[in-house]
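Notes from hallway chat w/ T.B., transcribed later so I don't forget. T.B. wanted the structure written out for a chain they're using in a teaching module, and asked if we could keep both sequence and structure tokens in one place. Agreed to drop them here.
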Amino acid sequence: MGAQSQSAARPLDGIRVLDFTHVLAGPFAARILADMGADVVKIVSEQRPGNTPVGPYYRMWNRNKRSLALDMSTDRGREIARALAEHADIVLENFSPGVLDRWGMGYDAVSEVNPRVTYVQMSGMGDGGPWRDFVSFAPTVHALSGLTYLTGVPGRENIGIGCSFNDHQAGLHSATVMLACIEARRRTGRGQRVDFAQYELGVALTGPALLDYNANGVAHEPAGNLDRYDLAAPNDTYPCAGDDRWVAISVTSEDQWTQFRAALGNPDWSRDPRFDSAASRLEHAAELDAHISDWTRRFDAYEVQSLLQSAGVPAGAVQTGHDLIYNDPQLAHRAFFTTAPTDGTDTGAYETPTPVDRLPLHFSRTPTDRYFAPRSIGADNDAVLDEWLSMPDNEIRQHEADGIFR
């Protein structure tokens, strides 16, 4: 298996995935399977400059995959793609509906020659409906689904949930879906098509707000950091010493409130009758938060975290990327950050090992501890075409000369 060849077994060794995805959601889904040992072959092309190893998205979401350069605008390129699909356990794509059908690579065509294939289509809106052909990216899906509105702050409903939350969730859901389909195939002997609308996922992620509206007609307004569904106070982020440093504190029971007060030295304000119950503390949250902020400003965020955690009160410093990589002792202890070594196929700025986050799963018998940086375009053409299609070397060289593998 070229760059992926190793000896120890991994959970998904032997599973073949044909990856037609781009940007984030689809590549992330395929990366999860690749991290667990699946042979993920990513179809790339010089004709699509946004889908090459020079970009940060590509670098992040396409590790542990093999790279096959294929010009899908040519008849022969599409023939080779269909032949590869005959040998795939999973075909994954996140184009607009109908793109792969026009290439002769849709589910109907592929399943005719490979009835055991799992075929996952991760389009923005799903295959059908008046918005079927919408061009969608995370910010538009967040907006349409209600996530932008619900995660804003009062008076600033346009702030939204931030970078690509729905994309990440779509990747996780798709990975689960693919594993479920492989299990269903084990029992039935047949594959299936999955029509996954990332927009519908976004709506589902509105969670209790959606349920509350459906059941009770309650339309929730943006609430910032506040929790609409639990009696928890204090339950917010508070300023600390230093430049723009904060700590999150979440008191979820009366026992924790008692422990919180004790950790602060039982100041006079904490004995105010308005703070005797969670409901009353919520009612007077502005006054409560002002007192807590006066206290937290005197300390470093990690000092507050340590003091409150030692007292049994949930608290955590608001960390930056720098903090996670260089200051976090928990992640360091568990070796969460590692490097994905290159194998000589990278070019330019990426010839050095790439820092990566590990798959946040620890398998006791089938470790997932191998990470390889994304491969340059077409680096695995020879190996994939030999292993999947038994294509002779002279045929590969001829197709290279004809411009099929680019």
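Follow-up for T.B.: The longest strand covers residues 39-44. Might be a good example for the class.
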